[in-house]
Amino acid sequence: xxxxxxxxxxxxxxxxxxxxxxxxxxxxxxxxxxxxxxxxxxxxxxxxxxxxxxxxxxxxxxxxxxxxxxxxxxxxxxxxxxxxxxxxxxxxxxxxxxxxxxxxxxxxxxxxxxxxxxxxxxxxxxxxxxxxxxxxxxxxxxxxxxxxxxxxxxxxxxxxxxxxxxxxxxxxxxxxxxxxxxxxxxxxxxxxxxxxxxxxxxxxxxxxxxxxxxxxxxxxxxxxxxxxxxxxxxxxxxxxxxxxxxxxxxxxxxxxxxxxxxxxxxxxxxxxxxxxxxxxxxxxxxxxxxxxxxxxxxxxxxxxxxxxxxxxxxxxxxxxxxxxxxxxxxxxxxxxxxxxxxxxxxxxxxxxxxxxxxxxxxxxxxxxxxxxxxxxxxxxxxxxxxxxxxxxxxxxxxxxxxxxxxxxxxxxxxxxxxxxxxxxxxxxxxxxxxxxxxxxxxxxxxxxxxxxxxxxxxxxxxxxxxxxxxxxxxxxxxxxxxxxxxxxxxxxxxxxxxxxxxxxxxxxxxxxxxxxxxxxxxxxxxxxxxxxxxxxxxxxxxxxxxxxxxxxxxxxxxxxxxxxxxxxxxxxxxxxxxxxxxxxxxxxxxxxxxxxxxxxxxxxxxxxxxxxxxxxxxxxxxxxxxxxxxxxxxxxxxxxxxxxxxxxxxxxxxxxxxxxxxxxxxxxxxxxxxxxxxxxxxxxxxxxxxxxxxxxxxxxxxxxxxxxxxxxxxxxxxxxxxxxxxxxxxxxxxxxxxxxxxxxxxxxxxxxxxxxxxxxxxxxxxxxxxxxxxxxxxxxxxxxxxxxxxxxxxxxxxxxxxxxxxxxxxxxxxxxxxxxxxxxxxxxxxxxxxxxxxxxxxxxxxxxxxxxxxxxxxxxxxxxxxxxxxxxxxxxxxxxxxxxxxxxxxxxxxxxxxxxxxxxxxxxxxxxxxxxxxxxxxxxxxxxxxxxxxxxxxxxxxxxxxxxxxxxxxxxxxxxxxxxxxxxxxxxxxxxxxxxxxxxxxxxxxxxxxxxxxxxxxxxxxxxxxxxxxxxxxxxxxxxxxxxxxxxxxxxxxxxxxxxxxxxxxxxxxxxxxxxxxxxxxxxxxxxxxxxx
Length: 1077
Hints:
Belongs to the SLC12A transporter family. There is one protein chain. By secondary structure, the chain is an alpha/beta fold. Helices cover 45% and strands 8% of the residues. The protein is built from 32 helices and 20 strands. It has a ten-stranded mixed sheet with strand order 13-12-11-14-15-20-19-16-17-18, sandwiched between helices. Strands 1-2 form a two-stranded antiparallel ribbon. Helix 4 packs antiparallel against helix 12.
């Protein structure tokens, strides 16, 4: 019935029926060419007329107003039988003259909220949501017309099951397995009724809590094939998921043997009762029957999942009849004296009381206890994952798994408890089977003699109690074969999913799928082989404890997944199943681990070692997968918490770390500069590689550049650093932005490292001024500054393959297209897109890359050594490689000279000390040069400096005090400097303010003494440090308004020209060294 007071949309009154009140996804159904009839939602017949006299057929919520405005009368309109919005559909509001189009998606660039827009991009049914750039740009935008409802994932034709056939039936068959018919009565005999019930309830507790956790995980998004492996790997990450997936696959493969041996054992008992045997009515017969049975089961699986499912239903029917047969027999009591003599006396209160307490005995040389009995029974409860393991074959795993699994646990737990009570109340523990001893129950007295019947001695108690014995055999066969079949299906499914993810080497071959359903025939054969190997053991009690630990380990991680996700609470953790609890999941985790060690600490230890080993293999391989695991969420939460904690703590000089911001441009352009920075910060402090681009980038292009830069640092240069860039800025502006905005909290750079501007004499005056200004900007922000100069040129653009080319070279063997995203987005060439971060250095020309005969003999590449290639992918000359690796190569001997001229807080001394502590530089001696204030107190100053270094615990080899620093430089030094600046001198008579980019006479005169000291230092450097491996010197302070950029660079050129690798350092005048403990 339509509701009163229909609400109006856009002036058009509509009616809302109770049936469609909440079907908001069908709004504007007329425009979609659909209507809702009594049978549900459907399409109107071709050319049928829809009466809209009483309003438009939109679906909306009732406004509750009874007296609305008069409805606009709309003429009848034909609606075609099409789910696609008609381009011709339109109507005119009466009296308004306004024409409205009926298809919104053709009138806007915006995408409507639809399921397809949120699918993985790899999905065939993935929708297209326009990017932010597409929405904002003025360029013509072509949008594909929506094709009605979302296209579902491409169906391969595979059979899909609902929650009853796919989950409930499988779980029931797997839980009602071999233990129900062959070992449950033995459990009652050993543990007694009370403890047997505890065994059942403890198993049910573990499985129920695990099922709750599994239900939470399975309803937190789309579950695909792989069952427990898929759930754990997507929740805890590939490391845990892969380990459990492999262990669980192995457990299921061994489970095939467990249930098949149970079948063979039952078959062997039946043949023995008929005086029939194959070889010995013992282990050899079990092996033969088991091998034949598992071969037949393999054939059923290979035929297809549909046949396997039909077989499961048939087996369940037989099993249910057998259970009913047992229950009826238990209430009816023994049918003849033979049954009574074998121990079945019917329900008896006295017997019930006698069997309440345990009676643990020695079996096969082993004294049993509660947990040994539990370990044998527990595999019967492990069938709860039978449905989850074929999650890829379920219609709706998120809904099917919780319903089917929890109901199966409830039904089987109640049935097991009923079986325990009936067996304990109706069958004695020992019976002779002698009919002549019925009087006075003498048959139950087995003291001093061996009895073959009773709960302790016979595994065929269920057949004895039943009304029709052969039906119990049929039920036992059904239970064991169905469980074996379920395991035979589960193991390959889980293993196939693991193989497809390529987390372990050499197993991908088994993941190939065949046929419509992608059946893993190769994995089936592997499971078959493993199962046959364990079938040859032929002992049910030996196999059961082995797989109990494997299952418990899997359950442990399932519960831990839910606990971890609930505790970290990532935004994506939104399970629709609400009946779980964080602390119950933790409790279940603890219970599973405890039971593992109580059953057998040796087996538990082996299981954990196996899981940890498999975990470490995946962690070492670092698979390129990103599944949004809770481990990632925990890493983020932990990092954020530690950053906040670090930010709240006051800094202390003992904890000082040199956190470097290096202006390297593209990392591939100046690899030696990055390597040198990494030499200082490796495993110690933060390193940020900054790039400043003049060109403006789109967001996609910027992300592409940053991703390639980080990938270059990580994969090719083997450097742990962060790469960032700013674009659309000049160098000075971009440098200021990076200096002020890089990092977060206390994780911010405190040192700026730049390459030496070797073309400072020939570059644009604005570029030189910007370079000089950036040094002052860094000091204004209380950062230390450092400039590195090497003998060889530092910019290798045009010599070694850059980030984009290396990506193409890496992808080429895999026949993947190269990534030209940046060029496509920016519209400029690769050279134009690679301006240096620091102003342009003189570049190494590509013509020096000439292969010689000696270059063909390459030394063996060391582990973690940077991976460089020439342009085009060829090998680099050895000379170029040596230059690139000059800071990572082992220094066999030599020295690091530290010219600690002025007290800048100790940074000039600390950085070379850190470098010397690296393994590649540890053989170098550390020589310290310091200035003496007066030659008269030279000895005292040397003692004072040695005492200071000793208190700083700086291990040095030589301490040289420099005197006469104020002595007049040699004429040759003066001539050198005069020649150096002759092209930079301003014409005489021009004031300093008007000499942009030039050195005025007034400035040169004002800084005459400083220039003289630098010339004197050059003489001392040439005399003492010409052959050193590295020179570190206190940098002259770039005073604002005192010295110009050309004169300052002339000082730096004077100090560093014709020298070995040279680093100029200036601290921020804050102590970075201390002698206090």
